[in-house]
Amino acid sequence: MHTVAAGALHSPHGRSGTLGIFDRMSRPSTIPALSRRVPAPLLSALLLALLPALAAARAPDAGRANDVAMQEAIAAAKAGRLAPGQAEALRSDPRWPWLEHARLARDLDTADPAQVRDFLQRHDGQPAAAALRPLWLASLARRERWSDFLADWKPSDNPALRCARLNAQQALGQAGADWNAEAQTLWRSGKSQPDACDATFATLAARGGLDDALRWERFDLAVAEGDPGVMRSAARGLPADASALAQDYAAFVQAPHARAGQWPRDARSRRVAAAGLARLAKSDPDAAERQLAQLAPLLGMDAAGRNQVLYQVALWTVASYLPDSARRLAAVPAAAYDERLHEWRAREAMARSDWQAALEAIRRMPAAQREDPRWRWFEGRMLEKTGKPAEAQALFRAAAASSTFHGFLAADRLRLPYALCPWQPSDPPALRKEVARDPALQRALALQRIDQPGWAVREWNDALTRFDDARRRTAVALAQEQGWFDRAVFSLGKVADEQRMYATRFPLHHDADIRAAAKRHGLDPAWIAAEIRAESVFNPNARSSANARGLMQLLPATAAAVAKRTGLPYAGAESLYDSSTNIALGSAYLREMEDKYGQAYQAIAAYNAGPTPAARWLSQRPAHDPDLWIETISYKETRDYVARVLAFSAIYDWRLNGDALPVSERLLGRTEGERKAFACPAPPAG
Fold this sequence. Notes:
Elements: E1 9-10, E2 16-17, H1 30-37, H2 40-55, H3 59-79, H4 84-88, H5 96-105, H6 113-122, H7 127-142, H8 146-151, H9 159-171, H10 179-187, H11 196-206, H12 212-225, H13 228-235, H14 240-254, H15 267-281, H16 285-299, H17 303-318, H18 325-331, H19 339-351, H20 355-363, H21 367-370, H22 373-385, H23 389-399, H24 405-414, E3 418-419, H25 429-436, H26 439-449, H27 453-464, H28 469-481, H29 487-490, H30 502-505, H31 511-521, H32 525-535, H33 556-566, H34 579-597, H35 600-609, H36 611-620, H37 626-631, H38 636-657, H39 663-666, E4 678-679
Parallel strand pairs: 3-4
Antiparallel strand pairs: 1-2
Helix pairs in contact: 1-3, 2-3, 3-5, 5-7, 6-7, 7-9, 9-10, 9-11, 10-11, 12-13, 12-15, 13-14, 14-15, 15-16, 15-17, 16-17, 17-18, 17-19, 19-20, 20-22, 22-23, 23-24, 25-28, 26-27, 31-34, 32-38, 33-34, 34-35, 35-36, 35-38
């Protein structure tokens, strides 16, 4: 637990208070860390022996003991070594259904069907049963226990299970009049279907339910998806000549070839040619452009087909700022432009410092897009760059009304306070008690405490189906009090005003660690907090698909290298789940990135994308202003990430101090200077 002494920080309203970078609570990572240090069998035995004594202890201590006991029991169940006594000691725990789930799901192929059915009946309508049923049905299908499958069937959107149900009906002679229609519905997809559907489709063909028209229908859907594998599969069973043509079509989509010039001059040939060249444009826009010029007159491609290819050629050229970007963007007719290509046309002009072209590109955007604070800001900036600063003022004023990165930049330009209209709805005690009694919410919060996020989210979503807006917000508050901060990100926003719940959406935690790291490396604590919010929403156990771990989402290799260079403690990948270790190493890496590139905004880009892309962007546009450099970053994720972290930094500064260092100073890495006030702007007149 990391807090500061009373009075060490200011509240958002400027009054001294006792909050550090978060409200006091035990760290969510305590239980996983404990379970890693003590051998599981020994820990379980000790806990079982101690449970009677723990029951008489203080409630929080008893709750923590139950959490550890349940976590160990679930691990034992998944490993097939759950002792009966260990399970029985936890029967009254709200997470009991998930302990049963873990035991049964371990090997459903050998599970007692009576036990599984008993579980499904007792917990019918609950997430635990909803999670086990598809696993059980899949097990029955694998073993071709079709009678049991149909007996336990419940409607599902899962294509594999739907095909398995049709296979069961066919095997048992129960394929009724609607069997073909259901199978044909599954067939009508341009995407690959699960293996279970192979038998379904073979039966459908044998029953006379797959005529040539249906085969071509799926083939055309696969063309639209750009999937040559499904194209080939759909074409099997066509007459020989038609099948040969379809296979050649599929080969073209996979790798365009010269034989396309001999295809029939019809609509399908033109669609296939457009799909194949559009796919090629993603890897080789030059080749796609050349082949379009050759094929379009041979096949009589219409404007829609040509535009489909020209769009992709332009997009994949400009995304790398290749030399032909401007020409290829100009070759796309205005009717084929969408918001993404409008943005890229503006960025491309900015990247080569053609301010007039960038201004014209912004002014070609649809009204709704152009009125976004981002593009109001850049339209104003382009007016400045083209010698019309007075015309920019109204655009900056409109942008400054938003609580965004570009809104904050506009407020800096006009020397206005930052726009912020906080809203914290009432949370009556009676409502909190009612919401807290919801069994699914209790299970969700209890599962989150023991690092079972998948199960916790299932229970959470189930609880929210019964809550109105006020109850949903109360549930978010209860989750936040237990350290489950991302619920404020994923569960708020259905009502527009919920975006203004800044105290909830921007949690504060780990004050001592953040302040120590900030002091050690000369960083702004609000920047470190903003990075944590952007990376993990303060989840110390977060782990990405790329194996980035913990609060600041560090890769183990990066953490090891930083530790070696700085001498900071590091005990391997698992230690990145320790908040103190993660913040220390992540902040040190931020300092390294800022030292390497010279500016905070470049360091943020490097933190997200890696040093190599950041160095490339800097070498391409070394003299660009910071806002223009950020906007011309090639990667959308990084472009948005930099803007988001800088905006979050200002909001965290406000949360900590009631005002903020200007974003235009902050992005340069400055930590001292004149502070900005926050105010809720008056609504426009009329």
